[in-house]
Amino acid sequence: MPGTKDARERGYANGRARREEIIRIASEYFAERGFLSATILEIAAVCGISRPGLLHHFPDKEALLEAVLEARDIEDRERFRPYARGHGGMGVLRGMVDLAAHNRLVPGLIELFVRLSSEASAPDHPAHEYFRDRYERIRSGTSRTLAAAIAHGHLRPDLDPDDAALRLTAAMDGLQTLWLYDRSIDMAGRIGTMLREWMTPEGEAAFDAAAPAPAEPLAMAEHGQVG
Amino acid sequence: MPGTKDARERGYANGRARREEIIRIASEYFAERGFLSATILEIAAVCGISRPGLLHHFPDKEALLEAVLEARDIEDRERFRPYARGHGGMGVLRGMVDLAAHNRLVPGLIELFVRLSSEASAPDHPAHEYFRDRYERIRSGTSRTLAAAIAHGHLRPDLDPDDAALRLTAAMDGLQTLWLYDRSIDMAGRIGTMLREWMTPEGEAAFDAAAPAPAEPLAMAEHGQVG
Fold it and tell me: Out of B122, B173, B180, whose CB is closest to A178?
C-alpha cells in the first residue's frame, strides 16, 4: 500500500526534522547554561514540547549531549575539504586562520565549546572522553601538519612540531575564551601573527597562495577549535 | 571586664576561622561543579554545617563567590613580590614561567579559574565583570612589561606589545584547559619556549639572571592566570 508507505516516510521526515530542531536548541541551551545546570524540563520548554515528548527522541540528557556533539562532528567533516591537502602543510595552517575568522560569525559554537570543554574537564563528566580525544586528535594532527611544513622548508627547521602544535591548540582555545569577554579581539589576526613568526620566506609565499577556492570558504574541522 | 573581651575575641577568631574554612571548601566545590550548578545546601553539607549556619556567614551564593574570588586576589597580592621590578621587564616574564610551573601543584585553582572563567563569559553571570576586568588588567599589565623589555633591547624590536600580550594571556589560559585533560603537559616549558622566541641574546641572559631569591619562590599575581 503506497499510501501507507508515504505516510510512514512523512512521519520519519517529521521525526528527523523535530530531532534536528531539538539538537539545535539544546546546543544553544548548553552553550548558555552549561550541561550540568541545564535540565531536560527546561530544554523541552524552550523546544515547545513536553518532557515526555523530548524523552521520546532522547532517553536522557546524556543522550542529548552526545547527539549535540555528534552533529557538530558531522558538520565539521562536511566543512573539512578545501584546505586539507597540498601546499606542503601550509593549506591546513591557512585553514586554521580562516576558521578562526569564521568562528566569530558563530558565537554560539564558541560558547558551546568553551563551556563544555571546561565543564567536561572533570573525569566523571559525560563529555570528558569526547574532549580528551578531541584535543589529542587536534594536537597530533597539527603536529603532523607542522612537521610536513618544516620538511618542505616552509617553517623554521628548529621548530619542535609537538611543542608548537600544543602552543597553537592552546592559543586557539585561549583566544576563544578571551574573545567571549572582548569581541573586538581579532582571533584570526593573532593566530596569523603566531604562524608567521615560524615561517620562512618560502613558507609565507605558500601560505598566501593557499587561499581556498571562493566557492568553499571555510573548513579545517579537525584542526580548529569549534569548526 | 577583660574576661568578656577575651571571650568576644575568641568568638571573632572562631568566626573568622570558620569563614575561611567555608571559603576554602566553596572554592573547591565551585572548581569541581561550577558556580551555577552548586547549591548552598550542598556546600553547607560538605562544610558539615546547616544551611542557616552557612547563610549566617554569607547571605547568598553570590556573596560566597565574591568571597572566594576576593580571597584569591589577596593571596595573589601576597605572592606578588619577588619578580615585580627590575631586569628591564624580564623579571616579570620569568615570574610568569615560574608561576605556570607552580600552578601544577595547585590543580584545584586551575580548575576553579578554568571553570569560572568559561561559565562567567555569560554577561549575566555574577562573576562576569570580575573576569572581564581581570583579563583586561592582565593584558594591559603584560603589554606594559613587554614594551619595557623591548625598550631595554631584551625582546625583538618588531614585536607588537599588545598583540604579544594577548597571545601570551591566551596561551596561558588555553594551556591550563589542555592541562586538565593531559597532566603531562609542561605548561612552564611551553610558555618559556614562546617567550624565548621573542628574546634577543641580551634578553635571554637577563631572563636567566632573573630567578627570584630562593626564600620567595613564587609570585606574579597580576600576570598569571590563577596566581
Answer: B173
